[in-house]
């Protein structure tokens, strides 16, 4: 299925592009997309497979456009008491913050970034990256990799050797399934047996909505480029009437966070607002509401004659493209 776009002759403004026609062609296989770019059959692909960046950089006919996306990749937990009976999503072990902290200390994020992301990502410590408005400089640093401490926490919580379900998409984020495989191995090393259940994204969201998980991988890019955004969607207690916490699949809830959110949304004094955002960031980190892993990289590929603008939300804007 191809989508063909042409400029609108009645556009009221001055064109910032020189495109006469743009054809959008979905290519599911990354290797096929890469071959199409190298042969000149297509002018642009997104994303470029991480392992092929060096290959493209050595070809003068194409170029790699790299940056850091606004998207944070994180781990979420089922934190709802007795949410289901039997099977995935039936374990209550993540109600204990010690167990969530054990996961945070068990996962070696720098190793994941070096081996799986080939050094093309940054470690995250919050639900937004440092480039976003409202990022908290006052909050703590990323959870340090400490497998001995992770084992001790699991022993203290009485869940060493427990088995959990880890849900993961295999076609939503860069190298998502490979990241989850690495996490599964790291958890096993500290005494937490994770059964990986990876699936296409069209099946993934219904599984999370049905609370059919113990732990899950999630990526979040704030559409407003502001730290309030993930608090509203990921950290607020789920409330359909108020349209809060709609992506808080695990049911995390903190009364103080809920109290601060409307204050953050209405405060116009930047200093006061930032102080409230700092408090929320500290609460989420102290309680290990989520385990932020890394800021997803942007890796686009284009023919050398294409000029474009790369946005941190991974939006490809046709009106900012020039074909030389």
Chart the SSEs and their pairings.
Blueprint: E1 3-5, E2 22-24, H1 30-39, E3 44-45, H2 53-57, E4 62-77, H3 97-106, H4 109-115, E5 122-123, H5 147-157, E6 163-169, H6 176-190, E7 193-199, H7 201-209, E8 215-220, H8 228-235, H9 255-266, H10 270-286, E9 291-303, E10 306-307, E11 322-323
Parallel strand pairs: 6-7, 6-8
Antiparallel strand pairs: 1-2, 3-9, 4-8, 4-9, 5-9, 10-11
Order of H and E elements: EEHEHEHHEHEHEHEHHHEEE
Outline the biggest β-sheet.
Answer: 7 strands, mixed
Overall pLDDT metric = 94
Anisotropy-based shape: globular
Question: How would you describe this protein?
Answer:
The protein has 324 residues and is an alpha+beta fold. It folds into two domains: 3-67 and 298-323, Periplasmic binding protein-like II (D-Maltodextrin-Binding Protein, domain 2); 69-296, Dipeptide-binding Protein, Domain 3 (Dipeptide-binding Protein, domain 3), CATH 3.10.105. The protein is 32% helix and 19% strand. The chain is built from ten helices and eleven strands. Strands 3, 4, 5, 6, 7, 8 and 9 form a seven-stranded mixed β-sheet that branches. The chain has a two-stranded antiparallel ribbon with strand order 1-2. Helix 6 (176-190) links the parallel strand 6 (163-169) and strand 7 (193-199). The longest helix is centred in the last third of the chain and has 17 residues, at 270-286. The mean pLDDT is 94.
């Amino acid at each position: 299925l191809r989508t063909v776009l042409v400029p609108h002759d009645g556009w009221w403004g001055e064109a910032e592009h020189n495109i006469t026609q743009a054809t959008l062609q979905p290519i599911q296989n990354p290797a096929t997309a890469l071959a199409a770019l190298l042969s000149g059959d297509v002018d642009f692909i997104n994303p470029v497979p991480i392992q092929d960046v060096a290959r493209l950089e050595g070809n003068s006919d194409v170029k790699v456009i790299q940056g850091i996306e606004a998207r944070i990749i994180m781990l979420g937990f089922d934190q709802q008491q007795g949410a289901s009976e039997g099977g995935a999503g039936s374990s209550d072990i993540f109600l204990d913050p010690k167990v969530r902290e054990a996961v945070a200390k068990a996962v070696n994020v720098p190793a994941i970034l070096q081996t799986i992301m080939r050094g093309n990502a940054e470690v995250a410590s919050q639900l937004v990256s440092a480039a976003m408005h409202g990022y908290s400089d006052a909050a703590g640093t990323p959870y340090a990799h400490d497998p001995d401490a992770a084992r001790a926490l699991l022993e203290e919580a009485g869940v060493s050797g427990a088995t959990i379900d880890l849900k993961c998409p295999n076609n939503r984020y860069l190298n998502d399934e490979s990241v989850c495989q690495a996490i599964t191995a790291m958890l096993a090393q500290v005494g937490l047996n994770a059964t990986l259940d990876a699936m296409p994204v069209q099946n993934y969201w219904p599984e999370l909505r049905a609370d059919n998980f113990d732990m899950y991988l999630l990526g979040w890019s704030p559409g407003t480029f502001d730290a309030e955004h993930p608090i509203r969607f990921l950290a607020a207690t789920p409330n359909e009437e108020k349209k809060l916490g709609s992506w808080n699949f695990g049911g995390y809830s903190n009364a103080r966070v809920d109290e601060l959110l409307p204050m953050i949304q209405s405060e116009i004094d930047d200093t006061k607002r930032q102080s409230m955002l700092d408090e929320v960031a500290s609460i989420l980190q102290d309680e290990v509401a989520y385990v932020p892993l890394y800021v997803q990289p942007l890796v686009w590929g284009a023919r050398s004659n294409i000029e474009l603008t790369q946005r941190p939300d991974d939006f490809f804007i046709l009106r900012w493209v020039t074909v030389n």
